[in-house]
Structures are given as C-alpha cells and as structure tokens.
Design a protein that fits this description.
The complex is a heterodimer of chains A (110) and B (115). Chain A is mainly β. Chain A contains no helices and 11 strands. In chain A, the strands form 2 sheets. In chain A, strands 2, 4, 5, 6, 9, 10 and 11 form a 7-stranded mixed sheet that branches. A 4-stranded antiparallel sheet of chain A has the order 1-3-8-7, with no helix packed on it. Chain B has no helices and 12 strands. Classes of the chains: A mainly beta (110), B mainly beta (115). Chains A and B meet through strand 5 and strand 10 of A and strand 5, strand 6 and strand 11 of B.
C-alpha cells in the first residue's frame, strides 16, 4: 500500500495563476481532508469530504475549491493564487478518528 | 469548541535524557487525543492515540502519553532521547463536527536532541 500520495511535491506559481493539487489514497477510507501548514500555526483544515460525493468547508476555505472525484481521489484547486497561499499543503484520509497524512506539497506563490 | 495548547514551542534535551512535551486541551465532549511527529520536510506520522480506554497510552519508538482528565492534559514522554527523535511534535484533539471527525492541532513543539 502506498497510503496517501500527493502530487506535485513542489510548485511555484505567479500571482493570479491557477493550479490543482492532487491527492489519492489506497486504504479504502471514506473521509478525506486538505490542510495547510504555516510556521508556528500547526495545521489548519481547508476542506474535508466525509464520503464520496460530499464536501464541507473547514477553518480556512477562502480562495480554494475541492472535488471528491471518487472514493480514492480528492483534489484541491486554487483558482487565482495569491502570495498568502504560500504554504505546505497536506492531504489526509481517515478511518474512524485516526487520520493518515500524505507527504505534502510545498507551494510558493510569487 | 475544542482547542489545544502546547506549552513549549521548543524543547532541548541531551541524548539519553528524558523527554517531556506538554499539551493541554479543551473539548466539550469526550475527545480522542493524538500525538503526531513530523521530521524535516516530511509528512506527519502518528505516534500514539488515546480513545477513552487506558489512560496511559504507549506509542511507537518508546513514546508514551498519559491522559489526565482532571488536569485536561495529555503530555508526551520518553525515558531516553535518541538523536533520531529530533523533530516537530503536534498534539491533536479530535471531535465530531458535522459529518466527519475534525482535528484541531496544537502549534507544535520543536524537539532538539543534543549529542
């Protein structure tokens, strides 16, 4: 099992550009999550999907959209990137109350 | 609403000495509590979790944590630090909100292990 995988690992964007971060899990988990990690702030929840076909906002959803493509895949889209979205993005999936994290995508917006 | 406070942003210990990373939490319900570790430029790895069974929880790599409801604490300990323990540690509380479990993270404690 690969667990939770994320692509790309690194990305540099210019202000106003768009991009999609991809996440996939092979553990047959129902719930998936997107977080951002900024220095000194732990992880903050952007969006989550409790099951295929549903998505809900987390703590910091502004400027992002998500798609739960199927049970395995959960993507995060930045429509018009801003420097404030420079961060490390983590995807996670869960069974019961335990979440398993991907390796992260380091995004820089210039 | 739930919250987590990690009382030290940085902890420095010598190799072979005990480790104590402190965490206090606030939750309206009976929470699940976790410790995750993050090594540089890596994802988060689950160290251990508490889910209302035994109050002393043993995790991987010799770490353990004790749930103390009266003190609303969930401190992480290890008897003897190893150089490979140098990393950032996150205390996390989980509660049900809406249709899925949501995690609230502490701000992290950076552990340095000195030779």
């Amino acid at each position: 099992n690969a667990g939770v995988t994320q692509t790309p690992k690194f990305q540099v964007l210019k202000t106003g550009q768009s991009m999609t971060l991809q996440c996939a899990q092979d553990m047959n988990h129902n719930s998936m999550y997107w977080y951002r990690q900024d220095p000194g702030m732990g992880l903050r929840l952007i969006y989550y999907s409790a099951s295929e076909g549903t998505t809900d906002k987390g703590e910091v959803p502004n400027g992002y959209n998500v798609s739960r493509l199927n049970k395995r895949e959960f993507s995060l889209r930045l429509e018009s990137a801003a420097p404030s979205q420079t961060s490390v993005y983590f995807c996670a999936s869960s069974v019961s109350d335990t979440q398993y994290f991907g390796p992260g995508t380091r995004l820089t917006v210039l | 609403a739930q919250s987590v406070t990690q009382l030290d942003s940085h902890v420095s210990v010598s190799e072979g000495t005990p480790v104590l990373l402190r965490c206090n939490y606030s939750s309206s319900y009976s929470p699940s509590l976790f410790w995750y570790v993050q090594h540089p430029n890596k994802g988060l790895q689950l160290l251990l979790k508490y889910t209302s069974a035994a109050t002393l929880v043993k995790g991987i790599n010799g770490f353990e944590a004790e749930f103390k409801k009266s003190e609303t604490s969930f401190h992480l300990t290890k008897p003897s630090a190893h150089m490979s323990d140098a990393a950032e540690y996150f205390c996390v509380v989980s509660d049900r909100a809406g249709s899925a479990r949501q995690l609230t993270f502490g701000s992290g404690t950076q552990l340095t292990v000195l030779p």
